[in-house]
Design brief:
CATH superfamily: Hotdog Thioesterase
Largest sheet: 11 strands, antiparallel
Mean pLDDT: 89
Distance between the termini: 65 Å
Radius of gyration: 19 Å
Number of domains: 1
CATH topology: Thiol Ester Dehydrase, Chain A
Number of strands: 13
Number of helices: 7
Strand order of the largest sheet: 1-2-6-7-8-5-10-13-12-11-9
Order of helices and strands: EEEEHHHEEEEHEHHEEEEH
Length: 314
């Protein structure tokens, strides 16, 4: 049985996936008591034409490409590392690209383009366990630390959040942050696979798609104590990396997740909190997967931003 039925073409050494129109499933997402960037009205207030497709939704389009290059190793030690360049919206189509590596190489350039040529993301796909430097590994060495934080004034690099239990069952609703279940996602996922739905695979169990590892690692993120960012403020994913350290991640399996603030950066419009979340086998320090996520908060969405900046920094 094929892992994926996705058609993959090759053009000048580049693996090319089909055009896909990912579905928006976060219209009613809430956090900190307010709607998110995926809500049309909220997004439009911030200058977007509507609610955006969440970044990791695009990761599914790269899964068949990674599997085509590295086979089962992709399912146990695969990594996608991406800098998001532009949003996509419901009804738009995009295509995934992977520059085919030479035999034996463990890293490859990836990018996604909307069908009008706009670059949606760029980054690297790679396999471990000895991972080559990823796009976000390199990006963190190039960024300037955030100066004069307001939204993140109370967050310090090195802060951690106590581990919490997580699991993803087929019908489990994943909370206000992710108001849907795995079963509902699999009805709309761009690249369906028997890997995701049952025991008809080499592992004898359903595995969690890479885009849903993001959901699992964010599940309960706002519960039980989180990093003390000021709010409410609207944020978006600006950079993201998901890395399988001893995968796959299994459906219905109990795990624990721990989180650490690893960097603060910013731009003219945003303050960014970089968090590394690690998924562990319960009661151990054995990591199964990790995620590095840059959540960029929009300064203009935090009502007292200017007043607090003046108070903090004169």
């Amino acid at each position: 049985m094929a892992a994926f039925e996705t058609r993959i073409d090759e053009q000048d050494g580049v693996l090319v996936g089909p055009l896909r129109a990912p579905k928006q499933m976060l219209q009613v997402q809430e956090y900190d008591g307010h709607a998110s960037i995926h809500d049309d009205a909220t997004a439009q207030k911030l200058g977007f034409k509507g609610g955006t497709i969440e970044g990791p939704t695009h990761f599914s389009q790269f899964a068949p490409l990674g599997y085509a290059v590295w086979g089962e190793r992709w399912l146990t030690h695969g990594c996608l590392s991406a800098h998001y360049r532009a949003p996509m919206f419901e009804g738009e189509e995009g295509r995934a690209y992977l520059r085919k590596p030479a035999a034996g190489e463990t890293s490859a350039e990836i990018w996604m383009q909307r069908n009008d040529g706009t670059e949606i993301l760029k980054g690297t796909a790679s396999v471990g366990p000895d991972f080559a430097p990823t796009t976000l590994d390199k990006r963190l060495t190039e960024l300037t630390p955030l100066a004069d934080p307001v939204i993140l004034a109370d967050v310090k690099v090195g802060m951690t959040v106590p581990r919490v239990p997580v699991r993803m069952d087929p019908e489990r609703h994943m909370g206000a942050l992710y108001p849907f279940s795995l079963a509902q996602k699999l009805e709309k996922i761009t690249e369906p696979s028997p890997l995701y739905s049952g025991a008809a695979n080499a592992f004898g169990r359903a595995i969690v798609p890479m885009e849903m590892i993001s959901v699992l690692l964010q599940y309960t993120a706002r519960e039980g104590g989180y990093f003390p960012a000021r709010g409410p403020a609207v944020g978006l994913f600006a950079d993201q990396e998901i890395r399988l350290l001893d995968g796959p991640v299994f459906v219905g399996e109990a795990y624990e997740v721990g989180r650490e603030a690893v960097f603060l950066s910013g731009s003219r419009r945003t303050e960014s909190l970089w968090v590394r979340s690690t998924l562990y086998k319960p009661g151990t320090d054995h990591p199964v997967a990790s995620m590095l996520l840059n959540s960029a908060s929009m300064k203009e969405s935090y009502a007292p931003y200017q007043q607090e900046h003046a108070k903090l920094y004169g």
